[in-house]
Amino acid sequence: KQPFSFAEIFAQKMEQAPPDSATIIASDGVKLFVAIYEPLSQQENINETNNISLVLYHGGGCHSGAGYQDLARNLSQTIGVAVYLPDLRGHGASGGPRGDAPSKEQVWKDVDSVLEFVSLRKPNTILYLGGHSSGGGLVVNYATKHANKRLNIDGCILVAPELGYRSGTARSDRNDFARVNALAFIVNGILGVMGHSKAVRFEYPPELLASDAGMVGFNTVNMANAITPETPKEQMHQLCNKKPVGLWIGADDELFVPEKVTAFVENGNTAEIVPEKNHLGILIGIYSKIGLWIQRQGKPDPSA
Predict the structure, then answer these.
(1) pLDDT, tens digit, for every residue of 161-195?
(2) pLDDT the model gives residue 9
(3) Against a cut of 0.90, is the pTM above it?
(4) I want to staple 258 with a disulfide (CB 3.0 to 4.6 A). Which of 32, 42, 66, 273 is the partner?
(5) CA gap 163, 231 in Å, rounded
């Protein structure tokens, strides 16, 4: 039995036209791919007055073109938000060894590079950082653990976020999507010598991996550490008291208990369980809720 439905990934392979894209050079020289969904210039929408952008990261082993097109296209064309979908290094069309990173800090520096690209492309943009599944974990880590952020973000968007094994959010009856080699993490934590070891294996259908070269069947210790919160309770507390946070998760999520995930959101921030949506299915149609949340934020206080 598959850990969750992959129907949304297969369905969006049939999308009409590819988005615009750019290649960014990371601080260590690796090429990072970014899919770009710009609003229609003739639209009268929130973006024409507020200049709003969202950088949204994909889940573990995935990439920007595997299920995220509907969300990005509708946010841009219907709501008017410019959406940027990066491929993590070692994933999708980005360079670097597959599923690997030199360090967790380098992955966070890659986020810096993408955010800087967006800010140069759209000066004075209101800039949101978001992620789905493990991409949400990356956002939490970046916002709370990356000490040398070069840009200020105006809020965070989390869609069915993976908050890490210490969060206690995993369903007890789930079929595990990720098979973890705990020994690799332990040895690396003590000796620092197994960062490039394949430590997390994803249970993607073989036909999906065979048909899509951008998918990755594993993450190394370094990559997994970059996208997995170590102290989720403390990190989410810090995040929710620093910037606006919007979190959405499907009521039928196959991996996480929705009520346990939303319980991490505090300080009046948004946390919503969406009926009749599963882990990937939530990507279809969630743009309307995210768009409404963005509109409600208004113009951020630059002194915050």
Answers:
(1) 999 999 999 998 877 778 888 889 888 888 888 99
(2) 55
(3) yes
(4) 273
(5) 9
- The answer to whether 131 and 139 have CB atoms below 8 angstroms apart is yes
Write the DSSP assignment of 69-89 as a string of letters: HHHHHHIIIII--EEEEEPPT
Question: Whole-angstrom distance between the N-terminal and C-terminal Cα of the chain?
Answer: 47
The residue with tokens 């990937």 is 280
* 182's tokens: 């705990």
Q: What average pLDDT is seen over the chain?
A: 90
- Whether 254 and 240 have beta carbons less than 8 Å apart is answered as no
Q: How far is CA 244 from the centre of its chain?
A: 16
Q: From start to end of 6-100, where are the E strands?
A: 20-25, 31-37, 52-57, 82-86
Span 112-133, average pLDDT:
95
CA distance 206 to 50: 44
Count how many Cα atoms sit within 13 Å of the Cα of residue 21 in the half-sphere of its side chain: 18
pLDDT tens digits for 235-261?
999 999 999 999 999 999 999 999 999
Q: What's the Rg (C-alpha) of the chain?
A: 18
* C-beta separation of 21 from 34 below 8 A: yes
- Measured CA to CA, the distance from residue 37 to residue 83 in angstroms comes to 5
Contact 134, 216 (CB under 8 A): no
Q: What is the pLDDT of residues 227-239, one digit of tens each?
A: 999 999 999 999 9
